[in-house]
Amino acid sequence: MKMRTCLIICFSVILMLGWSQRMAASTSGSAAVKSVLDKAMDIQTRPDLHGEAQVKERTRLIRQLISESFAAEEMAKESLKDNWDKLSPAQRTEFQKLFTSLFQDSYTRMVLNFLQKETVEYGQESTENKGVKVPTTIMRANEHIPVDYHLVQKNGRWLIADVDIDGVSIVENYRSTFRRVIQTSSFDNLLQKMRLQSQAIQDGSAS
Question: What are the Cα distances from residue 172, in Å, to 84, 89, 90, 162, 182?
Answer without folding.
Answer: 14, 23, 24, 9, 15
